[in-house]
Every structure is written in structure tokens, then in C-alpha cells.
């Protein structure tokens, strides 16, 4: 059992928790909590750590796995939550390509420019999975999707929704136009989003929480849309706006209904054949 934070493995975990560059270097990220742990695809699981008491109470969960036991104090130090659940795993980073996302028939995609809030990004993944999106494309300046706060707020969706970071969103938009994927910029000067028809390939462009989309990216989109506001509210936050847009698009794509479960089953099967 590991009982000190001076242990080499524990020092590695602490670096992974705090530093995006270290995560990229090692190609590993952290997942903690029993619910998230049970969502990890077997091929991505790298190393498992558990407190002694948690391991004794949940031995069935760890059947066939090699588990490194740590003291409660060490688990508290390596955890990113105030009340550790007793299990933490190192997970290999997932691998997707831009082509994986664009090659699908009539895809529903989200394009995120410079989002900074971990909770927003995690919620966007989770909501996007619920609406049956085909993937998320992010600028390099967007918050690290492997940030522990992001992964935790996805509630497992990080393992099922394909995503990529790209250097040039303008080039991505050009590629989408060439493949008949209509790009919609969420913008205060757009038309009512419910007046559009999202029956073909669709990509929603969502901007930074404070500044929205840059003018340059907005100008490259094929259409501008907005979510009408009542009262004195100017706009919704990025996660809520994304949710409304993707559910509206999915409603159109399914002829007014939302058979989301069958859509998700089909999409998940495609992900693991890439």
C-alpha cells in the first residue's frame, strides 16, 4: 500500500492532475469516482488506484484488475474533489481524427472557439451526447478536455462523443462547406434559430463565454442564428445555448421526434469501429 505522497507514482498523478502539458506528454489523464470509473472502455484503462476501505467494499468492481492500494490520506491528496470516492484511474487519451467526424453522413457537429470554462465544456459533451451529436471540434485555445473538472462534468460522455482539437477553424469551415455541412454561427445579430431547417449536415459555431465568436469566424459561417431572449437577458451561457441548438437540430433531423436512444446506439457502434 502507498502511504506517502513522496511515492514516485503519486508524484506522477499530482502532475497529471495539475498540468495539461504533462497530460499531453504522457498521453494520460485522470478519472475518479465509481460512476466514471465503470464507464472507462477497457482498452483505455492504464492504471487503477483505490483506498483500502473502498477496495474491500467494491471488490466485484475490480475483478480481474491489478489495483494499487493507497491510504485514505494519499487518496485525498491525489483527488480533485473535496470528498474522494475512493477510486482513481489513469486513462489513455482517446484518439480521433477530423476525418472521423466529417466523413459521417449528415453529421451534427459543434465547433467551439476558445471556450475557457471547464464546467461548460463538460456539460456541452454530456448534453451533446443526449442530443445525439456526432462530434465536437475545438480550437487549440479551448480549455483542455482532459482537465479533471471537465472529465468529471461529462459524466462519462467523454468516452462516447468523438472530439478533436484543430489549429485552424477557418480551414475546418471550408472543409465543411465542401462536404455540404452547413455552418451556423451563434450570434446576437442572427435570425431566430427555430426558423432554420437542420435536415442536412449541420455544424453550430459557439464562441468564448465572455466575448462570443470572433468576427472573423462569424463572417466565415454560412448563416447567423440567435436564441431569442425575453426580459433583460442578452444571451445564454455557452453550454445552455449549445444544448438548445443541438436538440432543435435533432428534432428536425428526426422529423419532429427524438428517438435519441437508437441514434446514440448507432453512433457509439461507429465510434468503436474507427
Q: Secondary-structure blueprint of this entry?
A:
Blueprint: H1 8-18, H2 20-26, E1 28-32, H3 34-39, E2 45-51, H4 52-57, E3 67-70, H5 72-78, E4 87-92, H6 98-102, E5 108-112, H7 118-131, E6 135-139, H8 148-154, E7 163-166, H9 169-178, E8 182-192, E9 202-206, H10 215-220, E10 223-226, H11 238-253, H12 260-271
Parallel strand pairs: 2-3, 5-6, 5-9, 6-7, 8-9, 8-10
Antiparallel strand pairs: 1-4, 2-4
Helix pairs in contact: 1-2, 7-8, 7-11
Explain how this protein is built.
The chain has 274 residues and is an alpha/beta fold. It folds into two domains: 8-92, 60s Ribosomal Protein L30, Chain: A (2-Layer Sandwich); 98-271, Alpha/beta knot (3-Layer(aba) Sandwich), CATH 3.40.1280.10. Helix content is 39%, strand content 20%. Strands 7-6-5-9-8-10 form a six-stranded parallel beta sheet. A four-stranded mixed beta sheet has the order 1-4-2-3. Strand 6 (135-139), helix 8 (148-154) and strand 7 (163-166) form a beta-alpha-beta unit. The radius of gyration is 20 Å and the shape is elongated.
Amino acid at each position: 500500500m502507498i502511504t506517502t505522497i513522496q511515492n514516485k507514482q503519486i508524484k506522477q498523478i499530482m502532475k497529471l492532475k495539475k498540468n495539461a502539458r504533462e497530460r499531453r506528454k504522457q498521453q494520460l489523464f485522470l478519472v475518479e469516482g465509481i460512476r466514471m470509473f465503470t464507464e472507462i472502455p477497457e482498452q483505455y484503462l492504464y492504471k487503477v488506484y483505490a483506498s483500502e476501505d473502498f477496495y474491500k467494499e467494491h471488490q466485484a468492481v475490480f475483478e480481474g484488475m491489478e489495483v494499487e492500494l493507497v491510504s485514505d490520506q494519499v487518496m485525498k491528496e491525489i483527488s480533485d474533489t473535496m470528498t474522494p470516492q475512493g477510486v482513481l484511474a489513469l486513462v489513455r487519451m482517446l484518439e480521433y481524427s477530423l476525418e472521423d467526424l466529417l466523413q459521417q453522413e449528415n453529421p451534427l457537429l459543434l465547433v467551439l472557439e476558445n471556450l475557457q470554462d471547464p464546467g461548460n465544456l463538460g456539460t456541452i459533451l454530456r448534453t451533446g451526447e443526449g442530443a445525439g451529436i456526432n462530434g465536437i471540434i475545438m480550437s487549440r485555445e479551448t480549455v483542455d478536455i482532459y482537465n479533471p473538472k471537465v472529465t468529471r462534468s461529462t459524466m462519462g460522455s467523454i468516452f462516447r462523443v468523438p472530439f478533436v482539437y484543430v489549429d485552424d477553424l477557418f480551414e475546418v469551415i471550408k472543409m465543411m462547406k465542401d462536404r455540404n455541412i452547413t455552418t451556423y454561427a451563434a450570434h446576437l445579430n442572427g435570425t431566430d434559430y427555430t426558423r432554420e431547417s437542420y435536415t442536412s449536415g449541420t455544424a453550430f459555431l459557439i464562441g468564448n463565454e465572455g466575448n462570443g465568436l470572433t468576427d472573423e469566424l462569424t463572417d466565415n459561417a454560412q448563416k447567423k442564428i440567435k436564441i431569442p431572449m425575453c426580459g433583460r437577458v442578452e444571451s445564454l451561457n455557452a453550454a445552455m445555448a449549445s444544448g438548445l441548438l443541438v436538440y432543435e437540430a435533432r428534432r428536425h433531423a428526426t422529423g419532429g421526434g427524438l428517438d435519441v436512444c437508437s441514434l446514440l446506439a448507432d453512433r457509439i457502434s461507429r465510434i468503436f469501429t474507427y
